[in-house]
User: What shape does this take?
Amino acid sequence: MLGKLIKYEFRNTAKVMLTLYLFTAAVTAVGSLVLSMDFVQHGTGNITDVLTIATMLVYILAVFALFVVTYIYMCIHFYKTMYSDQGYLTHTLPVKPLTTFHVKLLVSTIWILLSCLLLIASVFTLLIGISRGEILAEIDSSVFERFRTFFGLSFGQFLAYGGVSVLLSCLNYLLWVYASMSIGQLFGQHKIGASIATGAILSIISQIASTILMVITGYSTALLVEEASRYSDQTAVSIFGNFMNSSMIYNIIYILILYVICNVIVRKHINLD
Amino acid sequence: MSTLLECKDLTKAYGKKPAVEHVNLCIESGHIIGLLGPNGSGKTTLIKMMNGLLMPTSGELYMREAPIGVESKKHISYLPDHTYLNMNQRVNDIIRMFADFYEDFDSLRAYDMLAKLQINPEDRLKTMSKGTKEKVQLILVMSRRADLYILDEPIAGVDPAARDYILDVILSNYDPEASILISTHLIADIENILDEVIFIQNGQIRLVSSVDEIRQKEGKSVDALFREVFKC
Assistant: This one.
């Protein structure tokens, strides 16, 4: 059943997501092509400036849309299939409600991570276009050395660190909305309004908790900026490492709390009016 | 004959307002039962609890002596009182999905009923009229070889001619060992197919009786008795 659920969850979301990816790929290709043109790179004058700015603007909007649409679509899809009319089908399938929830979380996470990968590929393609492929020639072992000097991490470690951070952020944002919707559907009326209010309250609680944690651990933005300017010869990890680790631990705790809320409601308090 | 579904002191309240109150009920196999009551009497709330879509405030619910859960959903085929499918899907995609998830789903039976009603399986639901969507949903539900069919207002949204066909679909597509629980207030239309009736009012069971018993004891049709019991 798990395999079937995953298959149908992908199938039900693929149309919108693949259209979005095709759109991003098209904008990237056009942007890369335009910015690599001779008259754009070497030309002067208003037309060249307007074309460059317009291309960059459309590209930035497309990338922004990629994330906003992915995230909003995943949230709406979750609500529609769990707590709205389609929930009647979802919750009468011979599957544990928690399994359904896990599948929705997994598939949404995968789509968001794919969007991240597409963004990286898109930016890289644009850079190749702007540099007319020269950037590829510059990638050698010295790049990884410079990486280590700046970040204090190997490229592999950086990817792992970045990957975990992105994954945690993704789970954090998804579970924040899922928990808000799950609490919202417990209300007899105005479920969407209740979900939005719950989201706001959860966000405020999270902000207060993270501020308290910063005070306890002694990290603040001002302190980090001061340290960064004082020790300019140090690597990013030696300056920000502890802060990043504390932030990651805080994220994990917050994710666990949100997950427990969803878990209890999905298992014991489904309320489809 | 065996007990399929059992409600024990079942209550559902919204805040302090009870929607279903202390319901004790047994549904045996091999019966067509009408769950009858005026609007707001608690029919849909009771049905949703039977399908695990609403959690009872108190009391217990069992399907073949097991609590409502994954196992009960394998044996109950449920038709809600509104459209609950993804409107962008084609009928044949939905049939494939039902066949994937429900072991007792008979795709051939579904396609046969669609053909009889001249519904194109290639059509998307969003292109269909309200009545056709309801027919598609009923076909999907009745194409399962379930132990218990729970139909919430199956004939409310269709024209009188289609009602006859729907009742025919219901009658000709269920196993005699299975039971059908039909919730409706269009009693005159379904009275002839019912074996038993359950009258519900203000969340409480007012009457559980066989249709023959009502006719013999009261000398009235179910429709006439309903009008008398629930007279405003």
User: Anything to note?
Assistant: Chain B has one domain: 3-230. The beta strands of chain B are 3-14, 17-28, 32-36, 58-63, 66-67, 76-79, 148-152, 179-184, 196-201, 204-210. The domain at 3-230 of chain B is CATH 3.40.50.300 (Rossmann fold). Chain B touches chain A at residues 14-15, 48, 51-55, 69-71, 73-74, 76, 78, 80, 82-86, 88, 97, 100-102 (CB under 8 Å).
